[in-house]
Amino acid sequence: MKNKDLLKNVLGAESNSKSVIAGAILDVLNKAESLEEKKELLSIALIERDTVKKQPIALENKDLSEEKWTDLTTSHLDIVLGHLKMAFLKTNNAIDFSGEVIRLIDFFTETDEKVFALATTLFSIYAPYKELPGTPERIPEHKSTHLLDGNREMVDLIKYVTGLPFTVIESSSLILQILDSIKNNELRVTLLAFYVSVIIRRNKGTD
């Protein structure tokens, strides 16, 4: 059976254990004949994790005990999540992201560590993986504060719009018209972030 078929069987297996699923996928990855194949297999797992039709297939991989999972969470979770965030920001497609995840898995020496890293990835906010239309704008906090301070009229106008008796869609349409009139992209992004923050605060009742 080809490795892709093996992977589809694993993804379609009826198992509620993250570590069992990750262990089985790790076994498939270890059968790959090249790094490129390994990246392709992992990208399939990351993209199709929830879309493969479930079948009555039993996985025989070891389930990490609750105690072991807790220990690994304490010692490894921050490392794994930090690497995933960095990997997601520096790549723009599933193959390259998978390559970074493989580097993370290979960083660890014990099988339980590798399973934990893969399971955490598969069931993180980054999966099922979706390719973004671009890269996020990075604006330092001090610069965004300076932009807001220097454009008080726009800031006050956004506050005014959010306080009017409009629906969110109606308010958003007005905000888009305001933003469309601005040529400076950093200012547009900063004002949009400000608008979102105002909406969130008001929904929480803190504004």
List keywords for this structure.
10 helices, 2 domains, 207 residues, elongated, 0% strand, mainly alpha, single chain, 68% helix
Amount of helix: 55-70%
The count of DSSP E runs of length 2 or more, i.e. the number of strands, is: 0
Secondary structure class reads: mainly alpha
The overall number of domains is 2
Rg over alpha carbons: 22 Å
Unreliable residue runs: none
What is the chain-wise order of helices and strands?
HHHHHHHHHH
Number of helices: 10
End-to-end gap: 60 Å
Give the strand content.
under 5%
Main sheet overview: none
Q: Give the mean pLDDT.
A: 92
Rough shape? elongated
Brief summary:
This protein is mainly alpha-helical and 207 residues long.
Provide a descriptive summary of the structure in words.
The protein is mainly alpha-helical. It folds into two domains: 3-122, no CATH class; 141-204, no CATH class. It has helices spanning 3-11, 18-30, 35-48, 66-90, 94-107, 111-122, 141-149, 152-163, 168-180, 185-204. Helix 4 (66-90) crosses helix 5. The model has no long low-confidence stretch (mean pLDDT 92).
